[in-house]
Design goal:
Elements (H helix, E strand, L loop, with lengths): L2 E4 L8 E3 L4 E5 L6 E2 L10 E6 L2 E6 L6 E3 L2 E2 L2 E3 L5 E4 L2 E6 L4 H28 L3 E4 L2 E4 L7 H16 L4 H14 L6 H15 L1
Length: about 200
């Protein structure tokens, strides 16, 4: 991958890979290669990638554009060409420098590790282990509607204890098992036990 290297000025030693089809050089912060030297125009020049070739063009800058010491409005770049934007000289390279490549790979590795860490948090957060009243179980699962399961379970308990309505209680608890057939929540486990208990009476 092609890249440019700053040879002098405030950003001397700076390298930037040309990963876009259109690569801008200038003093503005939104350029791909930002050069703070006052002799550089805000939008000084652009490098366009055309069918595998790289063309540098002046963007009507105040100081103009030099390629290998000659003033140019536009020029086809070759490996090692020197581009002057204002008083700043920049070297064009067709092959990516190893340090630039390593920095990009390191950045991608960090992003990958961060995404894996986030996935781990989501997986752990998706199944909080709960202990209450001697019954162990998963309090919730990311694939079930826990609030609705809990509502149905508590509705069944209320029907059974307060109104002595066994049919309504069974209906509510069966709904719990319908919502959580794998019994991943503590409410589903309790509902199953209560249904079993009521059925024996």
């Amino acid at each position: 991958m092609a890249y440019v290297e700053v040879l002098n000025g405030p950003e001397v030693g700076k390298k930037a890979s040309i990963t876009q089809e259109t690569f801008f050089l200038g003093r503005d912060a939104n350029n791909h290669l930002v050069l703070s030297d006052r002799t550089v125009s805000r939008k000084h020049a652009v490098i366009n990638k055309v069918e595998g070739n790289f063309m540098v063009s002046d963007l009507k800058s105040l100081k103009g554009l030099l390629v290998n010491g000659s003033k140019m409005d536009e020029a086809l770049l070759e490996d090692g060409d020197e581009i002057a934007v204002g008083a700043v000289r920049v070297r064009f390279h067709l092959r990516e420098d190893q340090s630039v490549s390593f920095a990009r790979k390191k950045s991608k590795t960090k992003q990958f590790i961060a995404s894996i860490s986030l996935l781990g948090v989501l997986l752990v957060g998706g199944g909080l282990y709960h202990y209450r009243g001697g019954i162990k179980g998963w309090l919730f699962s990311p694939t079930v509607d826990v609030s609705e399961i809990r509502r149905q379970y508590e509705q069944g308990v209320e029907s059974f204890n307060t109104r002595q309505d066994t049919d309504a209680a069974q209906k509510a608890w069966l709904k719990v098992l319908e919502l959580d057939p794998n019994k991943t929540t503590v409410f589903a486990k309790k509902a199953a036990k209560l249904l079993e208990s009521v059925g024996e009476k």
